[in-house]
Amino acid sequence: MTTTDVTTAAGRGTVRRLAGTLHRRPRLRLTLLLTAPLLWLAVLYLGSLAVLFVSAFWTTDSFTSEVVKVWSTDNFHELVTTPVFRQVVLRSVGVALAVTALCTLIAFPVAFWTARVARPKLRPLLVVAILTPLWASYLVKVYAWRLILSQGGLADWMLAPFGLSGPGFGLPATVLTLTYLWLPYMILPVHTALEQLPANLLDASADLGARAGRTFRSVVLPMVLPSVAAGSVFTFSLSLGDYITVQIVGGKTQLIGNLVYSNIELNLPMAAALGTVPVAVIVLYLLAIRRTGALNSL
Amino acid sequence: MEGIAVRLVDLRKSFGETTAVAGVDLEIRDGEFFSMLGPSGSGKTTVLRLVAGFESPDRGRIELAGRDVTRLAPFERDVHTVFQDYALFPHMTVEQNVAYGLKVRKVPKAERLVRARKALAEVRLEGHGQRRPAQLSGGQRQRVALARALVGRPRVLLLDEPLGALDLKLREQMQVELKAIQREVGITFVLVTHDQEEALTMSDRIAVFDQGRTAQVGTPAEIYERPATAFVASFVGTSNLLGGETAHRITGAPGTYNIRPEKIHVLKETAGADEPDHATATGTVAEVVYLGDATRFLVDLDGGGRLTALQQNLQTSSEDVAAYRGTRVRLRWHRRHAVRLPS
Ligand SMILES: Nc1ncnc2c1ncn2[C@@H]1O[C@H](COP(=O)(O)OP(=O)(O)OP(=O)(O)O)[C@@H](O)[C@H]1O
Ligand SMILES: [Mg+2]
């Protein structure tokens, strides 16, 4: 019998008492558990969003580029009336939608194969294979695409036998690269949904006289749609916020992100105003998506 | 003349190493209520899935109304299935579920609705058309599945343990309803079940499955009274096998016999002379089980072996019953109830 035994026993007693108290008082437990993450969320995330939004209503001194903290809606006025800004916003949303559409189109057959056609033993491996690109650095992947799409690169070389050439750098290259980058975020939820689709629903549909196409439209699609919507939240918002890919493979193409980036030094309030645009668009997108019920399962 | 709705010829199906169906020949008549009865894993579901077209056989032929459908897809066969777990489409309302088969077959919308409502009325679910399957009880879902399969008036309806998920009371009630609906619509029903009572009460004919083969096909009475094998005797009802020396001495001929417990009378050992055409055996009561409406006696025969006898409790009460334990009794049965089984 040594003293250490005694102290550990006492320590254990304290821990046990504490655990008991926490068990009896769920409110206290919840408070202790959630305070730190909630603070993090409120201060860092919502706080910075608020700062962004507020500073969008300030202006800059055109000589010194100093921020003038005077309340004004000039930035938003400029945003709406300047054709270039309007064009860039529309282009950015268009890119995000195009990437989402492409991801969906590619994800469906791939996920159908990984979830239902491939041998069951192979399926987890296939999922891992789909996820591996996510482990590689974003920049490495984008530069890889730059190589592929560059003049005389892989794309040109592969299309040459057909008398065609690659898309070169520009808007199509941006859409292509972004599609590649965010594809796993679409395949994964679609794969999960297809995998969980009860096989006997497909049997039942065929049993009632439906051919494959009909079963796909009337049974598979409606049941997988919420997952597509969930995946599209990722592909859409990630594309809308991107400004590096477009710099590397986009040629002269400008997206919202680039405008924000180029304004940040000279005209911070304008950059903030521009920055609120994707936030607003994504909120609208989420509201639209919510009607499909997809967010309930997210 | 009665036509043949389903004909199976030497049907075989294996999954890797397991042989699920090992050569089944079967003829199911038009308008018949036919049951496939057998223990778990005996291949009933596989036969049903082969008939529906969800699986394709390794060998053999499937005919529906005389037409060879062995290589046809499910949507090309005039059969509908009621699945064990109902397989209702969760994203559709009850009405849409029921109308789905009609929609697929391009029935005009107005007619579709009328027929779907009528089908729902047939299964006593009027007014539930706008609900989702998740908002229904188990028994209601089962009836939606039935309505969905019936509304297209297939030639044959396949039911895979449709009542398996229901509690006893509901199951008995649905058995009666199912039988009534079948009589009304006159469609051939093929029911898979491992509940012998269900098969006996509902069917016109029964096929008893054992390890991927049919052990016996016949009416409920034939199956019960004249089991063709020891397996059928033990799977349908309580078997009571009498074999070896004892059987030879009692019946006068060697072999294995099955006697249903309720066919055996329990008498005092000193009971009078044997009636003609009856066989008797004496023994000691080893166990008495009071069942409420009846009492089961387990009797160790003097010549060896044990028989179970079931007596209706016409006069006895539980106290009388207990007093029988250890007493000497004489068992008597009519000779025609001792069914000789192939060894
Ligand atoms: N898809 C499958 N893959 C592999 N084996 C299967 C498959 N389907 C059935 N089997 C096997 O075939 C045999 C027969 O199965 P089946 O489902 O026809 O039995 P069952 O008579 O319907 O049994 P239960 O009463 O339990 O439903 C079983 O041994 C089963 O394990
Ligand atoms: Mg089964």
TrEMBL record, chain A:
Domain ABC transmembrane type-1: 89-289
InterPro entries the UniProt entry points to: MetI-like, MetI-like_sf
Primary location: membrane
Gene3D superfamilies noted in UniProt: MetI-like
GO BP terms: transmembrane transport
SUPFAM superfamilies, per the entry: MetI-like
Protein keywords: Cell membrane, Membrane, Transmembrane, Transmembrane helix, Transport
Entry annotated with the keyword Transport: yes
GO cellular component: plasma membrane
Bilayer topology annotation: Multi-pass membrane protein
PANTHER family the record matches: INNER MEMBRANE ABC TRANSPORTER PERMEASE PROTEIN YDCU-RELATED, INNER MEMBRANE ABC TRANSPORTER PERMEASE PROTEIN YDCU-RELATED-RELATED
Family, per entry: Belongs to the binding-protein-dependent transport system permease family. CysTW subfamily.
Protein name: ABC transporter permease
TrEMBL record, chain B:
Species in which this protein is naturally found: Streptomyces actinomycinicus
Classification via Pfam families: ABC_tran, TOBE_2
Protein name, as recorded: ABC transporter ATP-binding protein
Gene3D superfamilies reported for this sequence: P-loop containing nucleotide triphosphate hydrolases
Magnesium recorded as keyword: no
SUPFAM superfamilies registered for this protein in UniProt: MOP-like, P-loop containing nucleoside triphosphate hydrolases
GO CC field: ATP-binding cassette (ABC) transporter complex
An MF annotation (GO) of this entry: ATP hydrolysis activity
Sorted UniProt keywords: ATP-binding, Nucleotide-binding, Transport
Superkingdom to which the source organism belongs: Bacteria
Residue span(s) of domain ABC transporter: 6-236
